[in-house]
Fold this protein.
Amino acid sequence: GALPGHCQDLLPSESHVLLLRGTALEAWARGARLCQGPSWQQQLHPGEAARPLPLAPCGYMIPRPPFLCPLPPALRAQKLVLGLEHVVLLGQDGTIYTWGCGRWVHGQLGHGGLEPALEPRLVEALHGVPMGDVAAGGWHSVSVSEGGDLYVWGWNESGQLALPSKALAEKRLLVPEAAELKLVNHEAALGAEAADFISIQAFPALLDLPEGSEVSKVSCGSRHTAAVTRKSRGLGKYGQLGHNDTASSDQPRQVGYFPANGLTVEDVVCGPWNTYVGAVEK
């Protein structure tokens, strides 16, 4: 259905849609009718400047009650992104803070452990490296330095960090036999390489991209990552990697459609299981 009038920005989720509408912040429940009104609303104070959601003049919004959360006054954010159970904040000085808790802590905070953080905490491993962009997936996080380097951390179960994934290696060893898929002695086949697999990367890792690619924009889905280097990685069960198949990948692969059709990619936005690309003709 149609969005409420005067909508300036929105942030969708499975349960609610967050809106910046006129001079108000609103949360609309899934399936709500316009005549029913929002589940929650808060007016901006006079003089408060609207910010790109989920940032708000007085904190940040989340797609569940209480909908609006405060930020420490000392944290001056230029961008804030939400994972399923964690938050990543890019400060105006290029530093990164993370926090979050929940049932699944998979290193997505980047502090070297699996403990939750209830308050914003500096990602010390990246301190001193000015960052220009951040993104958060379901349980993984990425950042782009001002020089175009890509850093990744968190859960790598589907190869979303472009680091070696044991789950994907095991799938590659599946061979058809008697109309069934059987695993061919996978432990022996994996051999010593098993020690090199990464399921959780609790510290930020600098990703070595092919051909010295420099990243300008990055976005995360639930279990995949896309960067404006014409490379994408992660879970491809629903074709969200753009490689004309539904195979998952733990290696950066060029999305060949765009150069093949004379298109230059300018922007990318990942949904939970899909990817949107903004491109122009060369």
